[in-house]
Amino acid sequence: MTAVDVAIVGGGAVGAACARAAALRGLEVAIFEPGPDPAAASPASAGMLAAQIEPLDDVLIGLSVRGRDLYEPLAPALQETTGIDIGFWRAGIASVAFDDQTADRLKEDVARQRQAGLRCDWLDGGEVRERWPGAAPECLGALFAPEDGAVDPQAVARACLADARRLGAAFQPEKIERLQIANGRTTGVISPRGVTAAEHVVIAAGVWSPQIASLPRPLAVEPLRGQMAATAWPDGTPPAILYHEQGYVLARGVDAVLGSTMERAGFSAAVTNEGLAQIFRGAVRLLPALVRQAVARTWAGLRPVTPDGRPILGRDPELAGLWYATGHGRNGILLAALTGEIIADLLTTGETNVDIAPLGADRFNP
Which of 7, 194, 292, 366 sits at a 20 to 30 Å CA gap from 175? Predict the structure, then answer.
């Protein structure tokens, strides 16, 4: 039996960020990740830092803005310690309106965000077309969040993991089957290779989190499939991130990343003709020049979603030593760095300066 301070179950972006933050605070960390899964959420993400675009409630907006802003110092720090460029790009995101109802709603969002002290602008249709020639020719205008942006999601996970290992974290390519529990607290994790004793266990396994045996409660996390595609970015079109009704077009280098579906398909990460057709309809409406671009690749991943769309974050109220960092849905990359800081603070001090009361594991089954 080996022993560590913290066993982190899951090595995607969230788990890797938790491992890095805990190791930075001097904790001995082991990360358990059985290997790259084609259905995993992190590689399938577009990496949008859409803090002011996607969240639907005040709790998520506050968390998301804070999470987004952490990437400003994190990107150069990871570049320095690991040599990995996470592709941090902060050039804004435009949420486009094609009808009066959507335009009115987005204008209300602009006013509400400005009142909350956030930078947010309304661009009329002419301003959108002037800023991004060839984009959304039918649009009536757009909410523009100039401080939103994107990162390369695979690079984020890879860099956080590399930095955690640099700081002494051990990577174990093993699947955790169950918790080890004694006297009302978790004392470690059990894999096919044996037991690893741990004072703390962090569940960060995305859609697979509920499958870990011996959890003290059912986790209200289910998979939601997101299909995506990539083409070349059209020549002569300024790079942009354009969004409409959960569909988007994102410039990443010379590529255009197109997304995404939100489908209940169990644990199937298959790409379907229907899903791709939906993606391309939305993408071509946002950027018509994409109709002339050949598809370079397609893929899909499973986002871990909860009934209220908020992550499950913090301690288990009944089992000492057990912590949750799961259920981030489409916001896993956006919230990864912040989740890592929150979990590391809780592990070392028992407290965090982020209000996570609305994110407790027992809110679905008190």
Answer: 366
